[in-house]
Structure formats: C-alpha cells, structure tokens
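Sequence in, structure out. Go.
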Amino acid sequence: MADRHCYLFTLEVEPLKVGATYDELPLHCTLMPRFWSSLGAVELGSKVQKLLDNRPPVVLRAYESTLLGPKQVAANLIELTNELSSLNMSLYELLNELGVTYDNPAWVGKGHIFHVTEREHEKLEIGTTHLSKAVYLIEVKVPGYEHKRVVRQRFRLPRTQPLVETSRATPAS
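Output:
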C-alpha cells in the first residue's frame, strides 16, 4: 500500500492549522473515519470541494456521554440532524465512487456514530451546541510520521472566502 494514502475527514470544533502535524487532534467531530485512497490530498480535495461548495455550517449538539471503541474512550454523542446525515452520506457515496477502502466499514455510512472525543482538559459539554464552519482532510500513517496526523486541507462552510486551504509541505514535528 506504499502508493496509497490513509485519510479521514473531520468537522471543526477547535480550529486546526493546515500543514500542521499533530500527535493528537484538538477537539473535533469525525465526519468520515479512516479510509485508504490512491488519490493524493490535492486531487481528493478537488473532488470533495464540489460536494462542500454550497453546504452551510453544521450544528453539533452534544446530548449524551459514553465510552466508545475497543479502548473505551470517553466521548459525547452528537445529535444526528438531517444536515449532518446528508453531509455524511453524500461524502460516503462520493468516496465509494472513488474506490476507497475503509479501515472499519461497519463504522461508516449509516453505521457512523457522530461524537466528540473528550481530551484531558477539553470537551464539548452535554447540552451545548457548536456551529462547525469547516471540514478538514487529515492524512494519517504518513511515511516517517506513522503515529501523527497531518492536516492537508481545510474546506470552509459556507463558501465566504477561498473554499480550500491546501498544504503541500512535508510534515514537520
């Protein structure tokens, strides 16, 4: 899989810097869990950009605390609104057309559980609402940075300024 890339898409809770490398991402809501693609970030981003061009910001409303995954990570579940579901399913369908392979197929599409993972000193409080104004394309398992997350692109919701910021730089620690 040397010529393939591992990505995920997130919705902004805390802003991320395009081109930055993170050990652990700040607060975010995963829009599409990890998947593999033969497309580079710029090419993948150009295909996704059309999907996001006229999308409004997304409301993230935390409604319940839970433990998720095999590591039982503390997270707050996000209410599945029509807008969030539509965005998720549209992205899922596009990625399927592009022939991606998902790390955990049961957790994508209708099986995706929207949540914001708690951090040591941060969380999206139950009962609060956050307006997410950006989607990020994150690359993981980058050669030489396997345990890092590299922010490749930021897509603004809605398009009020240039829609996408792109990083072509090599990850830096």
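Check: Residues 11 and 105 are 20 Å apart (CA to CA). Residues 160-164, 168-173 have pLDDT under 50 and may be disordered.
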